[in-house]
């Protein structure tokens, strides 16, 4: 049984739209768990009144993404989950999203699967996976190298984001849950899927499974909209900072091959120091 885990904090309109899209899925062989981490905007009431089928797990307001996801996964495992999917609340699932993910999960039972992402405003593809060369710290964006006719089926990648991430129970049994201690928010998903890959579970971007997302609402984008010294500090050291130096260090130490680590770290630090002002 598939359990979909959605961590939320406020933004109930996004949560409502996401849950309505799940309710419209062509394949309903799943249950949904929402981890409400202390929302103050009426999310709890909305869930109770409009989505009685959803399992709600309460947080204390201090979970952030990683601990919230882990709390939901633990509940899913208690209920007998054989597969878990992490999903952000600011996404809308295509009606055949679950159908396509489960179809390819059956064909590739040991694989970790991610989804093609479209911009909800334009319908244009904005994320189709990437590969990372640890030796050079260079990323290869699949959307830039795959012609439109090849954007179908499964494509192997180095890691996957947590929005629409399908994880077989075998992966959890072998490597455990997300690293909430060292990576409380950003990079926990890339780290987890990288660790899974190194433990024999391939990562595939499933171009047949589609999500619509709101890139302008990401924490990184919002931080850069109004650049300031405070925003720069948050970018480099805040829990929600997209360029968090500590998080990057933990990711590198865990996943980069030792011979490439010095350059990977130095290059990564330099990119984060200047990247706030370049995007």
From TrEMBL:
Q: Where is the Glycosyltransferase 2-like domain?
A: 4-115
GO MF annotation terms:
glycosyltransferase activity
| Top-level taxonomic group | Bacteria
Q: Does the keyword Transferase apply?
A: yes
Q: Does the keyword Lyase apply?
A: no
Matches recorded under InterPro entries: Glyco_trans_2-like (IPR001173), Nucleotide-diphossugar_trans (IPR029044)
Q: List UniProt keywords, sorted A-Z.
A: Glycosyltransferase, Transferase
The family line of this record is:
Belongs to the glycosyltransferase 2 family.
Q: What is this protein called?
A: Glycosyltransferase family 2 protein
Organism equals Hymenobacter aerilatus
């Amino acid at each position: 049984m598939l359990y979909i885990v959605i961590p939320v904090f406020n933004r109930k309109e996004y949560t409502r739209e996401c849950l309505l899209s799940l309710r419209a899925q062509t394949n309903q062989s799943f249950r949904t768990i929402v981890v409400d981490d202390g929302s103050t905007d009426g999310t709890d009431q909305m869930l109770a009144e409009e989505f009685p089928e959803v399992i709600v797990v309460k947080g204390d307001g201090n979970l952030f993404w990683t601990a919230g996801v882990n709390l939901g996964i633990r509940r899913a495992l208690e209920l007998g989950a054989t597969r878990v999917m992490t999903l952000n609340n600011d996404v809308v699932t295509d009606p055949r999203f679950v159908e396509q993910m489960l179809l390819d999960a059956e064909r590739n039972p040991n694989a970790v699967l991610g989804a093609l992402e479209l911009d909800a405003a334009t319908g244009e593809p904005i994320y189709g996976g990437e590969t990372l060369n640890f030796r050079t710290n260079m990323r290869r964006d699949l959307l830039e190298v795959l012609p439109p006719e090849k954007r179908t089926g499964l494509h192997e990648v180095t890691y996957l984001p947590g929005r629409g991430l399908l994880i077989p129970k075998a992966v959890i049994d072998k490597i455990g849950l997300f690293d909430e201690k060292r990576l409380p928010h950003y990079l926990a998903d890339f780290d987890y899927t990288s660790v899974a890959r190194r433990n024999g579970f391939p990562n595939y971007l499933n171009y047949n499974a589609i999500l619509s997302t709101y890139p302008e609402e990401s924490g990184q984008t919002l931080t850069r909209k109004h650049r300031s010294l405070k925003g720069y500090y948050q970018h480099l050291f805040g829990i929600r900072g997209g360029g968090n130096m500590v998080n990057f260090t933990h990711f590198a130490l865990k996943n980069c091959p030792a011979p490439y680590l010095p350059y990977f770290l130095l290059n990564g630090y330099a990119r984060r120091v200047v990247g706030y002002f370049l995007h």
